[in-house]
Task: inverse folding
């Protein structure tokens, strides 16, 4: 089995960013709020169309 | 059918995103704690939401059906100032009672806890009360074509009441906190 330190490091960084997006209110307001509003508007628009 | 299912799924996902984005889940967990203050908050919040929901049919029933034609154009109805004015004046008492109930619950809860937040809550209720005549006058202007300058007396009166109550309350706060300045 080959272990790549850089790949593992990338995973760790990626995970940290995902956690920040989901649980840090500073980032989640934008990264989850905007797609959330767009999805909600899309859902309502699909029903009304 | 598939489209409706897709729309519902997308809306649920959007709602979940929004709940996480604005920390609604954490706020909810904080709000529904089984303490006396928590129960008061839940009770007044449910009452407030119900009253706000009731205000919509109340506003709709206030609109005279004679002013809406047999085949109403939604854009025309929404932009008709008499229709909007009567709708708002009809929903205003229940809407204000609902919001007041929520603010009252928040005040009672912070009063029970002995928190200084009660001062801000009192101010919030004062602002709500002073806003009522202003919005009511605005609906009268819309429905009866009165002069927009009639909005000035309730505006000035409201501003005076808010300024006086804010200065009295913050003075009281400063005295209690020993000279500490309230940041918000």
Result:
């Amino acid at each position: 089995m080959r272990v790549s330190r850089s790949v593992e490091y990338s995973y760790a960084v990626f995970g940290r960013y995902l956690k920040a997006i989901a649980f840090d209110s500073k980032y989640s307001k934008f990264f989850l709020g905007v797609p959330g509003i767009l999805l909600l508007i899309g859902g309502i628009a699909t029903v009304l169309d | 059918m598939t489209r409706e299912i897709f729309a519902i799924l997308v809306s649920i996902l959007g709602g979940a995103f929004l709940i996480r984005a604005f920390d609604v889940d954490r706020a909810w967990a904080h709000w529904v704690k089984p303490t006396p203050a928590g129960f008061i908050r839940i009770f007044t919040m449910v009452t407030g939401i119900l009253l706000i929901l009731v205000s919509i049919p109340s506003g709709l029933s206030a609109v005279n059906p004679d002013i809406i034609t047999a085949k109403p154009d939604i854009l025309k109805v929404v932009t008709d100032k008499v229709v909007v004015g009567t709708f708002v004046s009809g929903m205003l008492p229940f809407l204000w009672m609902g919001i007041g109930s929520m603010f009252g619950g928040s005040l009672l809860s912070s009063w029970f806890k002995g928190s200084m937040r009660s001062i801000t809550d009192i101010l919030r209720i004062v602002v709500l009360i002073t806003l009522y005549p202003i919005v009511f006058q605005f609906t009268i202007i819309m429905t009866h074509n009165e002069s927009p300058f009639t909005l000035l007396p309730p505006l000035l009166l409201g501003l005076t009441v808010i300024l006086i109550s804010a200065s009295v309350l913050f003075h009281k706060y400063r005295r209690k906190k020993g000279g500490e300045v309230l940041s918000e």
